[in-house]
Design goal:
By secondary structure, the protein is of the alpha/beta class. It has 20 helices and ten strands. It has helices at 8-11, 22-52, 59-108, 111-116, 119-158, 162-209, 211-216, 220-272, 278-286, 290-316, 360-369, 408-415, 438-443, 459-464, 472-481, 485-490, 508-522, 538-551, 587-593, 595-604, and strands at 341-355, 376-392, 397-402, 423-428, 431-432, 445-448, 526-530, 556-560, 572-577, 580-585.
């Protein structure tokens, strides 16, 4: 499919994704109509056969009718075959396009957005909702055809007798009113159920991913209790939704069943009076369920539209800047940023929001009235920095240290533009990072997190994500510099070894070293290590420290570390306390004059 530009208005409309397939959709609808027409014609012809066989010399006419019915059956089966081919051909392409667009949008979201939403919210929107919406759209066509078929048969039957027609109309009105009420109630319950499903999905994902921690800490019983409560809450909500449906369905179906039986009784009375032929009676009798099918399909159609509306709202809410805030970049492009960094009067407050569940009905009103619904509420805010200032010279190695919560990692998040400053400026090479485009910023900075994510790929594939054109020599050098080559070389498949989801086949230290190798491979002007040696043993830590020391003078290196022994040889240390740089200097200078720094180091080495 060609890449197309989609503005915000188009993004909230599923029909944008169907336009490329309009002729295929038209063919699907046509085949469905033809198949439905065959059903109607065969029913009428069969009624005529019943009428004919009560007459003398019926054989020839009956055989002609049956031959036509056989031909219609073969034609109908052909229609169903080809419409299924059309469905499978188009639906998979539409879903793949939706999945890709939603995943691309997820890449644009900022870190605060990810922190504010659980994993299930993203998985549901990117993977499950597109599949549901495509399946539901196809169901719409099928149900409309079913409704049309039932209506045509009821209209045809009604022409046989005006009183039969009036009885059908009365039943349709009563059942329709009940179904309308059911749809309103279901819409509300369905939205709440989906929210609870997201919570269950997220919890289950976390349990699977944290299996080792759960077992090692003996958390099975506690998490079983938490899971049981979540699953029970979800079960109760689903039961509530289904129970309400059953109440409405049972009432509606009882009225329809009793009503259609009364129609049959009335038709028998008409036959007794000579006012109805046998063929007409057989049509009424054999299609007594058409009214039920009509109301049932109409009700399911309403459910399907509700599901489509819910899925569409959930999917495209990823494009709602109010709830899912994206990263913002400038337009200035710089290929090679000089690695000097300066924070000028930077202020930043971390804000936590609570998001309101906007119902599908409210969402429709928002689009119709072109007004925003306030669906997020400020829960808390924490002032991290107030006019923070410091400067890092190019090609120097610096470290940020301090107690937990002092703001060390927040500095890195601001520098890499994972977070945006409230006020002030962050300059790299004298350029305000707000003005830089995404490529200029991310290409010149490489970050190794404390808990890096390793993908379910081979070691080589994990590395070339950072540099697709990397040679075998470059890959080997990066692994050597990260003190991982010896381990990789000992593996039966070497660099082609698959590491499992999240790097589960690797130890914590091996995952960190692979992440470091991946960062080194990019050869960025600024290298950032956020507690990146925390899972390493002393030997591996010394190897990584030696690697960092070897890089000194070639790149600007920024380190956040709890282990003060790993930063003894850096050019400068910034000592943070409650978001303020209270001291700075070399390791020896701080050790000599700063009692808190000295006590932290001594406590670490006892």
């Amino acid at each position: 499919m060609k890449e197309k530009t989609k503005d915000k208005k188009q993004k909230i409309n599923i029909w944008f994704y169907l336009k490329d397939y309009k002729w295929w959709i038209a063919l699907y609808v046509l085949l469905t109509i033809l198949a439905g027409a065959c059903s109607i014609l065969m029913t009428i012809l069969l009624a005529n056969v019943i009428e004919i066989i009560t007459q003398p010399d019926f054989l020839k006419k009956a055989l002609v009718y049956m031959a036509i019915i056989i031909g219609l059956t073969i034609f109908q089966r052909g229609c169903y075959y080809f419409l299924n081919i059309v469905y499978f051909k188009c639906s998979n392409k539409i879903m793949a396009t939706l999945n890709l667009d939603l995943a691309k949008q997820a890449f644009k979201l900022n870190s605060k957005t990810y922190n504010s939403h659980d994993t299930g919210a993203f998985v549901q929107r990117i993977v499950e909702d597109p599949a549901q919406i495509v399946d539901n759209l196809v169901s719409v066509v099928d149900m409309i055809m079913s409704i049309m078929t039932a209506l045509i048969m009821l209209i045809y039957i009604s022409t046989l007798n005006i009183w039969v027609a009036l009885m059908f109309v009365f039943l349709v009105v009563v059942a329709g009113l009940i179904e309308t009420k059911r749809v309103v109630v279901r819409r509300k319950n369905r939205w709440i159920t989906r929210k609870k499903h997201d919570g269950v999905h997220s919890l289950t994902t976390e349990i699977v991913r944290s299996e080792k921690d759960i077992k090692s800490l003996g958390l099975e019983e506690k998490l079983s209790q938490v899971s049981g409560e979540k699953y029970e809450d979800y079960r109760k909500q689903r039961y509530k939704t289904d129970k309400k449906d059953v109440d409405f369905w049972s009432t509606r179906n009882l009225i329809i069943n009793l009503g259609t039986l009364l129609v049959v009784v009335f038709a028998i009375w008409l036959m007794d009076k000579g006012l109805l032929t046998l063929a007409a009676f057989m049509l009424i009798y054999s299609n007594r369920d058409s009214l039920w099918n009509l109301i049932y399909s109409a009700g399911n159609l309403s459910n399907t539209f509700v599901n489509i509306k819910v899925c569409q709202k959930r999917m495209f809410s990823l494009f709602d800047e109010d709830e899912f805030e994206t990263e913002k970049f400038g337009t200035k492009h710089v290929d090679n940023l000089i690695g000097d960094v300066e924070f000028k009067n930077v202020s930043f407050t971390f804000r936590e929001y609570e998001y309101k569940s906007v119902s599908a009905e409210d969402f429709s009103k928002k689009n119709k009235n072109n007004k925003d619904i306030k669906n997020k509420k400020l829960v808390s805010e924490n002032k991290i920095f107030n006019k923070l200032c410091f400067k890092i010279e190019p090609n120097t190695t610096v470290a940020f240290v301090g107690k937990s919560g002092s703001g060390k990692s927040t500095i890195l998040n601001l520098l890499t533009k994972m977070y945006d400053v409230d006020s002030g400026k962050i300059l790299i090479g004298g350029v305000d990072i707000k003005t830089l485009d995404k490529e200029s910023l991310r290409k010149n900075i490489s970050l190794v997190n404390q808990f890096p994510y390793i993908f379910d790929m081979t070691i080589k594939e994990n590395l070339i994500l950072a540099k697709p054109e990397a040679s075998e020599e470059e890959l080997k050098l990066a692994l050597q510099n990260a003190s991982l080559w010896e381990f990789v070389d000992s593996l039966p498949k070497g660099i082609e070894t698959k590491v499992g989801e999240g790097g589960i086949k690797l130890s914590g230290g091996q995952k960190q070293r692979l992440a470091i190798a991946r960062a080194l491979l990019r050869n960025s002007n600024i290298l950032i290590f956020d507690e990146s040696t925390s899972s390493l043993d002393n030997f591996a830590q010394n190897d990584i420290k030696a690697t960092i020391d070897n890089l000194k003078g070639t790149s600007t290196i920024v380190i956040v570390a709890h282990r003060l022994s790993t930063i003894k040889d850096v050019d400068k240390i910034f000592f943070l306390d409650a978001g303020v740089i209270v001291d700075e200097g070399t390791f020896d200078e701080l050790f000599e004059r700063n009692k808190v720094f000295k006590s932290m180091f001594l406590a670490e080495n006892i």
